């Protein structure tokens, strides 16, 4: 009997039995066409009138850099979008690039989707929150929109592909093409040279053409949209536009940087004062706001020598030109949408920075790799050597990053900077939402608390689709973000995003309904206290001191209330432990751990620091 069953099965006599098991097929299968009824699976189609979506994410830009939020660097295109859209002044990132990008694209917290550090071998570890491999159960915004009738494109920085997968042999499931993007043009890593980028198109590395990368990605973005629009003008698109700008190396044609010659000669202390006044005038910070003290690692501008001032001012002239040039390239994209009647029904998000301004330029700035105080005999020799290279700052021949004094200035009105997840200076970034068809109040200010995980659910609500339970047969984890749509046309709406944790390299924090606790962490003793003239020692996790702030009254963390309200401090510390457990933050890993412990990786290589 068993042999007869197998024979019948192999010869097809059980075809009707097999078809009966295909629950997705809705037609009827008979022995003849006359006895059968055809059925076609429906083609995914976006809801009627669904908007196009453009998500722009800049890199390493502080809250006080762009003129759109009171900075002294001209960004006329962003200004126009903000003046005709909305400025979200209480929006947050994770404090560093890859975690921010993973949270942004998935709508889930970075450790929850395995991106607690980076996808780079030297910065990941074999734990659920740390392996740098976004699981298929955390579908991206691109995957969702693609499966609901959108074309999906990405250009610029991706930063979420594991190093061991980033060759032309793949595997490609963690390249942009494996995460919902039908076309990609850019680079897979965390940073790249703007004239000699590690360039990828779709699933292949290609040779760069020598032009600035910002120009190339803008050309490609416009080409993708134009090609689709000519063939399917009624089909919406999703574009993720993520330039490498303004991450180091700061590289831009002198046409742009020379526009700022002499404009920062007064230095970073005066810059902070001027920006604070501009921010109050714009209404993006409280009218009674005060600057935090200058960081102990930053020298007073007036204490610098004439040569130091000359050198340091040039660093920021180049940075400013780089940001203005990036704004110009965004303008090319916006103009294309306007000229082709696509602008009115397009939602444009601009997140001005995936973290705060970068402290990675060190105290004196960086011009060439390997040129630092360690390689020089003295402070004077280091300065003299750098001055000989001053004309190369910002060019293709240099690998420029500005001194940390400018990072603090660009982060006005906050303290600290990129990587400092405990501080608003690391996590507080501007958001612009521009949607002519959907925004009633042009130029409005929105103070509701937001985070990058909120962009995905906001988009789904604006488009009119639900988060899918499955993507390509993979059951989906719940989205953790909160849609911001409730606030778009109601400036007085109460914040709905009530709790948010942060963790980068040991620095950690928890926000809860206007209150915040934070613990600074020094993983490798690199911080230097100029006022005391000594290096600060590494701290242990158990010795880190928690601070408490009431952000409703003290938005930039100037007054620590931990001793005044110890019960509130303990309440939030318990909430942090819950968030840390649920979101896979453990084990805590900092840069010291990373540089001094050997981690084992699936490609067979044992990797250890240093983190770059």
In short:
The protein has 612 residues and is α/β, with parallel strands linked by helices. Helices cover 28% and strands 13% of the residues.
Give me the secondary-structure category: alpha/beta
CATH architecture verdict = 3-Layer(aba) Sandwich
Q: Mind telling me the CATH superfamily name?
A: Alkaline Phosphatase, subunit A
Give the overall silhouette. globular
What is the total number of structural domains?
1
- CATH class annotation: Alpha Beta
Count of helical regions: 16
| Share of helical residues | 25-40%
Strand content: 5-15%
What is the CATH topology? Alkaline Phosphatase, subunit A
* Major beta-sheet overview: 10 strands, mixed
Strand order of the largest sheet: 7-6-5-4-8-1-9-10-2-11
End-to-end C-alpha gap = 68 Å
Mean pLDDT: 91
Topology:
Elements: H1 2-11, H2 15-21, E1 52-57, H3 76-83, E2 86-88, E3 91-92, H4 97-106, H5 141-146, E4 151-157, E5 183-187, E6 200-201, E7 204-205, H6 213-231, E8 237-242, H7 254-257, H8 268-282, H9 306-339, E9 346-351, H10 379-388, H11 404-410, H12 424-427, E10 431-434, E11 444-446, E12 450-451, H13 455-463, E13 470-471, E14 474-475, H14 485-488, E15 499-504, E16 507-512, E17 515-519, E18 528-529, E19 534-535, E20 546-550, H15 566-582, H16 591-596, E21 599-600, E22 606-607
Parallel strand pairs: 1-8, 1-9, 2-11, 3-12, 4-5, 4-8
Antiparallel strand pairs: 2-10, 5-6, 6-7, 9-10, 13-14, 15-16, 16-17, 17-20, 18-19, 21-22
């Amino acid at each position: 009997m068993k042999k007869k069953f197998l024979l019948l099965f192999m010869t097809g006599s059980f075809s009707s039995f097999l078809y009966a098991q295909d629950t997705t097929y809705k037609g009827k299968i008979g022995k003849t066409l006359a006895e059968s009824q055809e059925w076609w699976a429906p083609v995914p189609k976006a809801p009627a009138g669904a908007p196009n979506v453009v998500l722009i994410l800049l890199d390493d830009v502080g809250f006080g850099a762009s003129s759109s939020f009171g900075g002294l660097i001209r960004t006329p295109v962003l200004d126009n979008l903000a003046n005709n859209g909305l400025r979200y002044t209480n929006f947050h990132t994770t404090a560093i690039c890859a975690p921010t990008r993973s949270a942004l694209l998935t709508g889930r917290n970075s450790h929850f989707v395995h991106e607690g550090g980076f996808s780079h071998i030297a910065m990941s570890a074999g734990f659920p929150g740390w392996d740098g491999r976004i699981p298929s159960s955390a579908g991206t915004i691109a995957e969702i929109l693609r499966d609901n009738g959108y074309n999906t494109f990405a250009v610029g920085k991706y930063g979420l592909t594991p190093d061991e997968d980033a060759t032309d042999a793949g595997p490609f499931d963690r390249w942009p093409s494996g995460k919902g993007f039908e076309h990609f043009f850019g680079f897979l890593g965390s940073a790249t040279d703007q004239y000699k980028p590690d360039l990828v198109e779709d699933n292949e590395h290609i040779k760069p053409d020598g032009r600035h990368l910002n120009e190339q990605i803008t050309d490609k973005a416009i080409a993708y949209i134009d090609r689709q629009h000519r063939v399917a003008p009624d089909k919406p698109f999703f574009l993720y536009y993520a330039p490498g700008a303004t991450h180091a190396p700061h590289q831009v044609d002198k046409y742009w940087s020379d526009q700022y010659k002499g404009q920062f000669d007064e230095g970073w202390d005066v810059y902070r004062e001027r920006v604070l006044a501009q921010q109050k005038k714009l209404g993006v910070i409280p009218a009674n706001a005060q600057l935090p003290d200058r960081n102990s690692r930053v020298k007073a501008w007036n204490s610098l020598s004439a040569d130091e001032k000359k050198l340091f001012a040039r660093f920021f002239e180049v940075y400013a030109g780089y940001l203005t040039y990036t704004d110009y390239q965004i303008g090319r994209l916006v103009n294309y949408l306007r000229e082709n009647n696509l602008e009115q029904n397009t939602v444009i998000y601009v997140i001005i920075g995936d973290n705060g301004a970068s402290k990675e330029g060190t105290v004196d700035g960086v011009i060439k790799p390997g040129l630092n105080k360690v390689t020089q005999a003295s402070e004077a020799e280091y300065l003299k050597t750098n001055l000989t290279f001053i004309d190369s700052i910002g060019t293709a021949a240099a690998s420029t990053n500005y001194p940390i004094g400018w990072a603090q200035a660009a982060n006005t009105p906050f303290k600290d900077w990129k990587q400092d997840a405990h501080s608003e200076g690391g996590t507080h970034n501007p958001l612009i939402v521009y949607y002519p068809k959907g925004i009633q109040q042009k130029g409005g200010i929105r103070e509701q608390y937001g985070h990058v995980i909120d962009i995905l659910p906001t988009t789904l609500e604006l488009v009119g689709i639900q988060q899918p339970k499955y993507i390509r047969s993979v059951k989906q984890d719940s989205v953790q973000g909160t849609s911001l749509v409730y606030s778009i046309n109601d400036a007085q709406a109460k914040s709905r995003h009530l709790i948010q944790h942060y963790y980068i390299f040991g620095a950690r924090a928890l926000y809860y309904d206007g209150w915040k606790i934070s613990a600074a962490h020094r993983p490798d003793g690199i911080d230097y206290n100029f006022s005391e003239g000594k290096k600060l020692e590494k701290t242990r996790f158990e010795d880190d001191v928690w601070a408490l702030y009431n952000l409703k009254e003290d938005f930039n963390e100037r007054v620590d209330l931990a001793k005044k309200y110890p019960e509130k401090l303990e309440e939030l510390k318990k909430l942090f432990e819950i968030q840390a457990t649920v979101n896979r933050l453990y084990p805590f890993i900092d840069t010291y751990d990373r540089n001094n412990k050997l981690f084992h990786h699936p490609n067979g290589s044992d990797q250890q620091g240093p983190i770059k």
